[in-house]
Amino acid sequence: MSAASSCRLVLALAVQNLGRRQSRTLLLVAAIAVASAVTFGGVVAMRSVVASMQIGLSRVGADLMVVNQAALTNLTDALLTVEPTDSTLPADALARADVAGIARLAAQRILRTDQSGLGGAGELVDLIGFDPATDFTILPWLSERLTGPMQPGDVILGAARNLPLGTQVVLFGQPFRVYGKLARTGSGTQERGVFLHMASLIGLGDDVQARTGAVPPMLEPANVTGFLVQLAPGVSELQLRFALLSNVAGIKVIVGGSLLTGIRQGLVALLGGLVLLVVALSASTAVMVMVLFSAIMAERRREMGLLKAIGARPGQIVAIAVAEAAFATAAGGALGVVLGLLLLRLFERALVHHLSEMGIPFLWLDGAGTAAIAALCVAGAALVGMAGAWFPAWRMGRRDTHDLLWKEG
Amino acid sequence: MLACRGLTKQYETDRGPVAAVRSVDLDIESGCYAAIVGRSGSGKSSLLGMIGGLSRPTGGRVLIGGTDIWALSEAGAAAFRNARIGFVFQFASLLPNLRALDNVALPARLAGTMSRRAILERALERLADVGLDSHAEAFPFELSSGEQRRVAIARALMNDPALLLGDEPTSDLDEQTEREIMALLRDISRSRGTTLVLVTHNLALAAQAQRIVHIADGVVVP
User: Which domain of life is it from (chain A) (predicted)?
Assistant: First the structure.
């Protein structure tokens, strides 16, 4: 028998079987649709929540700030940038101490100057040098930016500075391109700040010296103004603060809002739990579908025996059952995606709109990502159905034809 | 045409092995109409199942036209059943979601050696042979029990089998319909030269056969 002819027959029999038991087929499609809708809606919402939280939690800032003990600091709940000061720390101070409990570490250099040439005469400008590769407090606040990663000749402007993206600004005679702008943070230093690559800020040293007569200490390559620190999971601020003060001389450790740190650590654990819940729900649905198909195949035992008797090969018996399951469950999966989109619409109206009114950003997964999850849901539903039908059909294909025709069970 | 040598079937049960058929030797000539008779549980259906390639023997061989059917691979046996053996069962064995025409065409579609048009033409011929060409579009639920059995006979003949097997093919039919179906089967056997082997416990029907095989306790009795 040619493969095309066999395929046509298998598909025709599968479709006709589905049409024969319309109520049961519709119930099966509905059950799969509900499961698919929950999975699709849950995964898209979860991915969106995770993306939004990553932004939101990053915006909460650092847990600790480490500066020279002589530095004056302005303590706020959100530690986003170190405060401008002439007191510095060795750039390798924390690396040399090798203190455990640090998840992320970002060094910053801040030069507060009225000689930069930016803004009106005598206007104080905070030039903040940071490393985009290690940063976790500045880039999350980007509200708009040019495409591509930030280059050494780029600057990011605080929300209080109103220049269009792509325009040129001159700092100490050197041109820079406006790469991005930050959202409003409520932190004066950050809102007035001009953020540039650490190396670019150090590179301004000679020009600064030419205008002010000296190279400020924070522009020396060996120095930084301070460090922003994020705690590793399970580590408290007090533990790390004590460890830092014990191991690094001449520092001051500023602790941020412990409540925010607790929320950050708790939410990460909660998200992990929710992912497990979705996985468990999907797995239980798969088992239910398999049980259902086992029952369907048992009911059609004699029909399968008849097909075998008149010349159907075991592989064709399996193919008929698997194709039937794939049609029904893929249809259920597709319907579920549509239902899931409606659920997400409700979610958007109920929660996202509310969050947006409160000024809390919510980032929906992009179209390509959503389409990929939809395709995975449909394919996953079909796979679950096929797996559920395959095993009982495979067993049936191997059974004695006479038993299928005459024996019960 | 059909030869059984030392054919044995033993079932495993909770109370130990039970022999349904014991070392049966049987020869049926080509074009012969043979009836296998015996009481319920005598082993006649088990014997027919092994002859038709539906139930694997515990021992012995079944030769149809010289082919040892139980020596064939699974796919080879399926192809052999499809091409050489026709079955008529004692239950309504039509696929309920297919029209009469499509039910009849099924063995040829499984074989896949003919065009779709040729298959449908031949299926219509077979329906005409059993007097049901006017019911080609009907679904099984639209047919009477006797008509359903005729459609099953047409399906059994679809690939021009050399051997037609019937397991109590008229047991659930009324007397009039039973006589009509049996007459149809005999005519087909005679006109086509098809070897016909029927299992029945109806001795009156068996009396019309050219050869009667009595079986009791799994053994052919003279």
Answer: Bacteria
